[in-house]
Amino acid sequence: MGRQERIARSIVRAIIRTNVNGTKKKASNPLGILLALFSAFFSLYQLLMRKIRPADFAKLRREYWDVSDDDYVDSFRPREGAKDEEALTAIGDMGFSGSTFYATTDQKYLVKSVPRHSEHSFFRNDLLTPYVQHMATHPQSLLVRICDFLGASGASIGRILRLAPSHHIVMENIMYGREEAENRGDAKWENWDLKPTSYFYPERDIADGALTSDATKEQLADEFHDKIVLSQEQADDLFARLEEDTKLLAEHNAVDYSLFLVRMKLPREEVQEEVQPEAAKSDSNLAPPEDGPSVPPQPPTWKTGVASADGKYVYRASILDFFWAKHKIQPRFMTLLINLWNLLISKDGPMSITTTPEEYRERFLKMCRGYVDIKKD
């Protein structure tokens, strides 16, 4: 069994072998417990994981996102006769930090590792409580819905040597439904991971990117070379959500977050010259999902799908990757390096990870507004 499979197994067992309050289901065999602890210590990749603040996430799922405990756990259960690790599919190994990325077999949830201490400590100690409160009071927030937060428990060789990520988040999959649409032969879904591109990116801007590989540069933010056509009401609603969500992030020193945008093309027979700004009709192939974690509130929302005012597309959007905080040690060190670069070598300005939270928020909101065209009545 390889690294990705062992990491997947540790994630799945943390979800399906714990109670709602996060406590492990007790084993009755003392010898079995001893062997399990021994095995966990010498494990390189399969770390013993625990849920962090499980009651808070369970309350969000049940009371605000209408996801029952049974339905949530069922998404992580392997098929009959399958092994635990087969309940997750590895999407990719996300580069230099050792991050991993998985999807549940039903495609409802994604699991992303948060291996950097500066990021998972920021979420746990600084942002988690405000995030939970915000998501409870802002049902149409664009912040990605995080359904669980897992952290390594106890000592192990793999954890000491950092061979496997120590923390993971379980979040909604905003691309839920794509696989079914592709199987039907519908138009391919498009997606972009959008950040302000006016910042200094060493991978792109030093020697015109000649010193880094194409694979490295591909990890930089995408660019959306089009416009989202919305009615005035739709645009006002979108900008209000963005203002509220980014205000929370700026207040807690978060920078470098991105807008994940998904576009689905409506079938030609459904496109009309004049359409109302409403979600795809229930009989459409692009009908929004009817189950969690993206609902409630009921559609149309940016989590389930909002139809463009010109009737050509359905869009989804979510704010991702808000774990980089300016006051943590690693971001402060990076800020120092970039300041020295600007002082001694070239005045290229800040990076997206070294700017101030207020300045990043301003550029981020400007970027989002620049992607929108308002359809006149």
Automatic annotation (TrEMBL):
Presence of the UniProt keyword Transmembrane in the record: yes
Gene3D superfamilies (alphabetical): 2-Layer Sandwich, Phosphatidylinositol Phosphate Kinase II Beta
UniProt-listed Pfam families: PIP5K (PF01504)
Chain residue ranges for the region called Disordered: 272-303
Spans through the membrane: 31-49
Stored InterPro entries: PInositol-4-P-4/5-kinase_C_sf, PInositol-4-P-4/5-kinase_core, PInositol-4-P-5-kinase_N, PInositol-4/5-P-5/4-kinase
SMART domains: PIPKc (SM00330)
Organism classification: Eukaryota, Fungi, Dikarya, Ascomycota, Pezizomycotina
Protein name: PIPK domain-containing protein
Keywords from the UniProt entry: ATP-binding, Kinase, Membrane, Nucleotide-binding, Transferase, Transmembrane, Transmembrane helix
Domain of life: Eukaryota
Domain PIPK, residue spans: 1-372
Organism of provenance: Podospora pseudocomata
Biased composition (Pro residues): 290-300
